Amino acid sequence: MKAPWVNTILLVILIVQVASGYMGMINNEVQLNWVLWTHSIGAYAIVVMLYWKGTVIFDAVRRKSVWTKQRIFFMLTLLLLIGTIVLGAI
């Protein structure tokens, strides 16, 4: 594995994203604008971290050429992630 630290950082970012997204949806006050800024910065951080995560993913795909159910599910999840990022950027 080339970058094992990526998973830990992505987990922390995911927790921040869930918390800031929830807080942004339930609060409608100008004083809590920083919550939405935190959420948007976290989104850009995920996009930046995908470079290193991509090296881990492509290394795993290259090593094993057998397509199992888990691998197909993983690829579908990866396509959903890419679709979510594209829709979020629009």
Bin the strand percentage.
under 5%
Helix content: over 70%
Structure annotation, total helices: 3
Measured on Cα atoms, how large is the radius of gyration? 16 Å
Task: Explain the overall architecture.
The chain has 90 residues and is mainly alpha-helical. The protein has one domain. 82% of the residues lie in helices and 0% in strands. The chain is built from 3 helices and no strands. Helix 1 runs antiparallel to helix 2. The radius of gyration is 16 Å and the shape is elongated. The N and C termini lie far apart (33 Å).
Compact description:
This protein is mostly helical and 90 residues long. The chain contains 3 helices and no strands. It has helices spanning 5-26, 33-63, 69-89.
What labels describe this entry?
single chain; 90 residues; 3 helices; elongated
Helices and strands in order:
Layout: H1 5-26, H2 33-63, H3 69-89
Helix pairs in contact: 1-2
